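Incident log, structure service

09:12 report received: a user says their structure output differs between two submissions of the same chain.
09:20 pulled the input from the user's history:
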Amino acid sequence: MHANGRAALVAGAAWCTVVRCIPGEVIREASEMWDDIFELHIAVVEKVMRTLMVYVLILILFRFTGKRGLAHLNAFDFVVIFLLSNIVQNAIIGDDQSVTGGVIGAVTLVAANAAINRWLAVDERAAHVIEGTPTTVIEDGKPVQKAIKRLGLRSDELGDAVREQTGSEISSVAHSRLEPDGRLVVVLRPEEKNATRGDVDELERRLITIEDLLRARTGQAD
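09:34 re-ran on a clean worker, output below:
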């Protein structure tokens, strides 16, 4: 028998010895572990439906609770979001804790969100229904009390948001609206606006024109 053949027989015998030395209980535990990781304990359709139903529910809740965020979250908002994620977790997971089930839920959630965003991008009516419309919160330097009360805002929150964005007070604002996504759009009064690059360029052109006129008159006087 060739040396390679003998070496193969020796290696095979050693492997069989190692396998026989492994207790059957260890093998069963390893098999059960991999089953727990990858084997689904509920149907794929049920997993997808659970995820979609919870996603739609959260979307509806945030739609009808208003857009008070001003693109910021206070301590109460963080508490609500933290507790909400724990409350709906079991509704999405069900009796399944496998990695496969988690992957299916994550893919379903991301795909549903992407589909909703694309739908809203092409359908303005759907965007108005699902996201809502902008709300005027400041008009002519004064907060619109009815609007900020309906949105659950406080006057100091609104003032802080205006100062953070523009460095000015509410009295300097001509018009401001709160977008459905929580962004605060602020338009300052004309006299409160800073000079833009276009304003500077226009001023330079006027100064050059004045200098040319002065030179022309000086030349005529000479």
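09:41 both user submissions now match this output. Likely a transient worker issue. Closing.
09:42 reviewer note: The mean pLDDT is 75. The CA atoms of residues 156 and 162 lie 10 Å apart.
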